[in-house]
Write a structure and sequence with these properties.
150 residues, mainly alpha, 8 helices, 54% helix
């Protein structure tokens, strides 16, 4: 009897699942385009490190601790980086940035796709931002500040 016949269908599923998880972890740790960026080893392999810290309510403290350990750029997931340097803000969040929001932002949006925050398309974002920009100008903020301070 060959070895293949001794495996049940469930056993084959387990072997395939193990192989897929192992291959993904290997890719994320050794071959990913961001594999050179420092961070917790488990965070480089899968989302478990971040998920555990999130569930324990320690995400911010844990990420801060890793920044103290590894520096201003830390890999906190297989495809997720955290930046602690304020100089990065303009490069990452300006309208001319080369870095686009991931599909993960879609989980924040409204059902009818009207939110500015989760808009990924540059042109849609520009149009939505134009509708709200007057409310956030320095003049408007200065006019409303006394009301907020009351």
């Amino acid at each position: 009897m060959s070895l293949a016949l001794e495996f049940t269908f469930g056993a084959w599923i387990q072997v395939l699942l193990y192989a897929a998880v192992t291959a993904a972890g290997f890719y994320n740790y050794f071959l990913s385009p961001i594999q050179h960026i420092a961070g917790p080893p488990l965070a480089k392999i899968n989302v478990l490190w971040l998920t555990i810290n999130e569930m324990m309510g320690k995400r911010s403290k844990s990420i801060h601790r890793e920044h103290l350990r590894y520096g201003p750029v830390v890999r906190i997931g297989p495809s997720e980086l955290s930046f602690s340097d304020p100089a990065c803000i303009k490069e990452l969040y300006s309208q001319s940035t080369l870095y686009m929001k991931t599909s993960r932002y879609k989980t924040f949006g409204a059902v009818n796709d009207t939110a500015l925050f989760d808009t990924q398309d540059r042109e849609d974002h520009r149009e939505k931002r134009m509708m709200t920009s007057a409310a956030f100008s320095s003049k408007s903020v200065n006019e409303v500040e006394p009301l907020i301070m009351e």
